[in-house]
Specification:
- With 341 residues, this protein is mostly helical.
- The protein is built from 15 helices and 3 strands.
- Strands 2-1-3 form a 3-stranded antiparallel beta sheet, with no helix packed on it.
- A hairpin with a 2-residue loop joins strand 1 and strand 2.
- Helix 2 packs across helix 6, helix 6 runs parallel beside helix 9 and helix 12 runs antiparallel to helix 14.
């Protein structure tokens, strides 16, 4: 993408107020995900205790202060011990049941102590929502990155080299698209003994590349016959240089749009897996919805994670649509009449 087109794309994006608002929401979610340990944690953000200074001890030294938490440290610092602490906005960790580790099997609505209530074992809902944003966005970014790399590699080879390579990649795409993706993910997750966060991202990434490969193949087939590619080939440029320097950069626009839409889909897949009990052993919006199924009168277990999922997915989709309009302002004109309407 040359400089003038890049400036034109940015200007078109800035003129789309809905896209800019959605981008702001996504940026806020990213800040929340990155700073979740500073906003909701069972240990202080900064702590001077017994002559030692701890900075984000929940991350840097998680075992140094066990079995302490914010509540026991507050009592100690209020007593004879010298020291001070900067506590997070929500003084509970996402997996912390109650101060001291005791279970509270009574689901409680929002109070002054737990602003958004607790789940069926006493975990703070607000803390789980904040840390669940990290899980959702991390799965969205990493899973999409994995299948974008695979799809770009296979699709570009199939579209540029054609022949046997094209037939093999097209066969692989057809096979992958034959299986329902979510069902395939469920089968793989059911066969895996340990369901870690990285495992979930890897499974989603390895099962989602077919659509990207098909899209990239079509774009490469279109671009490889354009005059500037023929000129580069006539000047003696190698196939690798033509593909990496001329063809792929021109095909990245539709891929970027597909990646943004894919991020929303990956977030929904992770949420569904957690809801069904196949998700990672980590705080998740889907896990809160699963707890709501067991405790149906506890409306806060449905409303708050449901709103988080709705706002996140809707914002990401708005960003993707705005990016599509900015990269190709005439794309609606090429759609069938009933689609464009």
């Amino acid at each position: 993408m040359n400089e003038s087109r890049r400036v034109s794309v940015i200007r078109r994006l800035l003129r789309q107020r809905l896209t800019m608002a959605a981008t702001g929401v996504v940026a806020l979610l990213m800040v929340t995900a990155l700073g979740a340990d500073c906003m909701a944690s069972d240990l202080p953000v900064l702590l001077s205790y017994q002559g030692k200074l701890y900075v984000l001890p929940n991350i840097s030294r998680p075992g140094a202060l066990r079995p302490h938490d914010n509540h026991t440290l507050r009592r100690d610092l209020a007593g004879a011990s010298k020291g001070w602490a900067v506590y997070p906005l929500i003084p509970y960790g996402p997996n912390q049941t109650q101060p001291g580790g005791a279970l509270d099997l009574n689901v409680r609505p929002g109070t002054g102590e737990h602003l958004l209530g607790t789940d069926d074992v006493g975990r703070d809902v607000a803390a789980q929502l904040l840390h669940g944003a990290r899980v959702a966005l991390l799965v969205g970014f990493v899973a999409v990155l994995i299948y974008m790399v695979i799809g770009l590699f296979l699709g570009s080879l199939a579209g540029y080299l054609r022949g046997t390579v094209d037939h093999l990649v097209s066969w692989g795409v057809a096979v992958m698209l034959t299986f329902p993706t979510f069902l395939l993910i469920l089968v793989i997750q059911g066969l895996v003994a340990s369901q870690s966060l990285w495992g979930v991202m890897l499974v989603i990434g390895l099962t989602g590349w077919a659509g990207v490969a098909r899209l990239v193949r079509g774009e490469v087939l279109r671009i490889r016959g354009l005059p500037f590619v023929e000129a580069a080939r006539g000047l003696g440029a190698s196939h690798t240089r033509i593909l990496l320097r001329h063809v792929l950069p021109s095909a990245l626009g539709p891929v970027a749009v597909a990646a943004t839409f894919g991020m929303a889909s990956a977030i929904l897949v992770e949420t569904a897996l957690s809801f069904l009990g196949f998700g990672p052993d980590a705080p998740s919006w889907g896990r809160l919805l699963a707890a709501a199924q067991v405790n149906r009168p506890s409306w806060w277990l449905t409303v708050f994670p449901g709103l988080a999922i709705f706002v996140t997915v809707l914002s990401v989709n708005f960003v993707a649509e705005g990016l599509q309009d900015a990269l190709d302002p005439h794309h609606k004109a090429r759609l069938p009449r009933d689609w464009a309407d």
